[in-house]
Amino acid sequence: MAPGFENYSKAFTKHMDADARSYLASRLGDFDDMRIAEMDKAGIDYVVLSQTGPSVQSERDPSVAALRAMENNDFLAKQVARHPDRFGGFASLAMDVPRVAANELTRAVETLGFKGALVNGHTNGVYYDDRSYDELWERMQALDVPLYLHPTDPLPVPKAYDGHPELAGAIWGWGVETGTHALRLLFGGVFDRFPRLKIILGHMGEGLPMMRWRFDSRFAVYSHGIKLEHPPSTYIGRNIVITTSGVCSPAALAGAVAEMGAEAVMFSVDYPYESTSIAADFIESAPMVERVRELVCSENAQRLLKLDQR
């Protein structure tokens, strides 16, 4: 949490009790004792940090959003510089104007040394399959860094959630929203236009790995005239890769690896919203052959984020 970003996060934290909000505030603002101690205890060598959501994606003024994204990235770069062997950074991007986002991404990667960017879903209802974002995707592909697509609230909230606020957020709605956004990129042809682009989804891929077969089956019948160079399943594992963040299920992990391949899955914790110790115990005890464990726990992230160059 960068200083001054607390108001943005009220959209997420307003549903938590006071103790949970206090706990998160203390952890999100710490870059030394608590965070590194948890990493050491769990055997985690290196983490990539990002501004907690919804960040500047909820800012209504594009010029303010662009300024705040730069402020956040400068702040995070200073924290990373204090512990460069333990921390990396994902840039915040104001997505209102694609060229502004592309330029800030370039600055964050080339000047600040960031590993990519994290964006909290749509920007006030605008999704990034729109052709106006091709300028950003072209720049991201040229820089060879990934975009982590993180959940946010749907806009508007679907009527199906009426009377069930528990469904609209982290329990269900965020995964549906984020998985749908990723599918918009896929069926919108973004990965055909930019075949080396990488999008990261958390939470074991927001459910998409388990649906790969059905995407192919039903797209063959209900394509609505959309043309893709490959079956939809091809892009899930090639262009869309995932982390385990927030899903500590050995069965779900085994299914994701079986569907996408071991090189498309990366270990992550979702700290401080999830327990580091639970996540570490899960990944250590999950039944995997040693080669798959090496890929999931370290080598995939090292390759995608170029951690050997840090």
Question: How is this structure best described in words?
Answer:
This protein is of the alpha/beta class. It has a single domain, classed as TIM Barrel (Alpha-Beta Barrel). It has helices at 6-13, 18-28, 33-42, 62-82, 98-110, 134-143, 165-168, 173-187, 190-193, 212-219, 232-238, 250-260, 276-285, 290-305, and strands spanning 47-49, 87-91, 116-119, 147-149, 199-201, 240-243, 265-266. Strands 1-2-3-4-5-6-7 form a 7-stranded parallel β-sheet. Helix 3 runs parallel beside helix 13, helix 4 (62-82) runs parallel beside helix 5 (98-110) and helix 5 runs parallel beside helix 6 (134-143). The longest helix is centred in the N-terminal third of the chain and has 21 residues, at 62-82. The model has no long low-confidence stretch (mean pLDDT 96).
Concise account of the structure shown:
With 310 residues, this protein is an alpha/beta fold. The protein has helices at 6-13, 18-28, 33-42, 62-82, 98-110, 134-143, 165-168, 173-187, 190-193, 212-219, 232-238, 250-260, 276-285, 290-305, and strands at residues 47-49, 87-91, 116-119, 147-149, 199-201, 240-243, 265-266.
